[in-house]
Structures are given as C-alpha cells and as structure tokens.
Amino acid sequence: MTTWVLLRGLMRDQRHWNGFDQRLRQRGCTVLTPDLPGNGILTHQASPLTIAEYASSVWQQLDEQLAGQAFYLLGLSMGGMIAMEMAKQRPEQIKHVFVLNSSAANLSPWYQRFNGLNALSAWLKRCRGRQLNPIESTIVRLTSYRHRRDIALIERWSRYRHESTPHFSNACRQLWAAFHYRCPASLSVPVSILSGDRDALVNIQTSKALAQHFKVDLVVLAYCGHDITIDAPAKLAHYLFEIICSPEQDVGEPFADYTDLLDEERNYHEARLVQSLPNYTSALPSEAE
C-alpha cells in the first residue's frame, strides 16, 4: 500500500481537492491532505512568510501520522513550492516529488508566475448568482479550464468560504512567501514536473523552467487549467501511476481506471461540441450530459 501526501496552494485547503484524494484512496492508497497555516482547520494560525516555514509545519503534522514512513508527495501551485522545500529538508522520507503548475522566483519573472490581466478578466467574466461568492467564482474561472462555468462547484466552494475564510492578512503573507520562493539548486529525490496547457494563472513557461532546472521532461496535460486535479483527475492519476511504476514491475490492476480515463475525455469533448455546434445532437446518454 502506497502513501501519498497532497498539498494545495494559496488560500486553499483539504476540502478543495474535489474528490481527487478519494480517487487515490479508492485505488488502495493511504492519502494525507495536511492544511497549511492560515488555511482550512488551521485558519486561526498566522501564515508564515517563507516557504521553508510552511514545509516545517507540514512535517510536524506528518510526523504525528506517519512516524517516519516514506511517501509520494504531490504539490499544486504554491503546494509545489512547499513540496520541493520538503524534499530539500528531508529527502530520505520522500519517494518522489510531483510538482503541478508551480514556479520559482530564481527561474521565472514575476509576470509569468502570476497573470494579473487574466485574473482581472476572470473577475469580470465570473459566474454570478445569489449563492455564488464572487471571490470563489473568480477563482474557479481563473484556475479551471473545463469547469470554469461549473455552478455546482462554485456553490460548493462558496459554502467552504462561508464556513472557514482565510484572513486577508494571511492571504497577503502567503502571497509574499510564494513570490519570494527560490527553488533549490538540486534535489536528491526523483522529481516530476507537470503542467496544464490552458493554465490562465501561471504561464506554462514557469513549469518548463523547472523541468529544465531539474533536467527532467515536462509532462503537459491537454485542455487543463491551473488546477489539474479538477480538470482531469483520471488523466492525472493515470500519469502519476505511469511515472512511479517501471515497465518491469507487475502493477496489477491499473491505478487509474481506464474506463474513467476514457469517459473523462469523451464527456469533455462532447460538451465542447454541444457548446460550439447549436445543431449538434449529443450521442451521450442524458445522465452524462
């Protein structure tokens, strides 16, 4: 049984995995989703000003749960920065680091690391409604490509914000830490860099810079925005499994169900046809539309 630790980023917490953590658990994995100081169940804490301090906080949580057990580490956005820092601090406990749509100040300019124009556009084009928090609606519009108009998702995240809202001061402190983060010169654990080709928040060039820095191939997921775990969870799980399993290993049942993988792509492209061709008649069953 493999153990995974998943780290989210700026002002997000364990509730925002949107079922991706459960997808891994269904395949027999132990999955831990620690919150960062200032977010989620730790919203009462002050957020640190350096990524190294966030990494130390995560290690404190993991020490209580894993007792030195090795694990696979996945970080999204700012979570990817923390994942790299954790691998620098304790490489002996990490089997593999997966960095999704992240960046580093020593490798990429600030305007590639945060697209302010797209953020403004997302605010103006966000979905509106009585049950939709404008900030969460903007975040979904900015970070998801396939689900940027998903009202149910926005409503759910709006409820999360009502239940537990990061303080403005903590949001600023997290931004400061992320913008000043400099990745290590090298890591002694295997590293994989993944990116969505439709990321509106962070330019794909930042992931290319990380891949070049660590001398690894960049894995690009098509039709995915900043939050790949929402846009293509089955595809992402499939890639993760393919990376950690060598061809010589008997992996048994596929880590990501191929039926889920095919359905995910079929449903997405079918939805695009329905939207772009008014006279197109869907071939999918009504419950899948």
UniProtKB/TrEMBL annotation:
Domain AB hydrolase-1: 17-233
Keyword Translocase part of the UniProt annotation: no
InterPro entries: AB_hydrolase_1 (IPR000073), AB_hydrolase_fold (IPR029058), Carboxylesterase_BioH (IPR050228)
Superkingdom: Bacteria
Record GO terms (molecular function): hydrolase activity
Record key words, sorted: Hydrolase
PANTHER family assigned to the protein according to its UniProt record, in alphabetical order: HYDROLASE ALPHA/BETA FOLD FAMILY, PIMELOYL-[ACYL-CARRIER PROTEIN] METHYL ESTER ESTERASE
The protein's name in its UniProt record: Alpha beta hydrolase fold protein
Organism this protein belongs to: Shewanella decolorationis S12
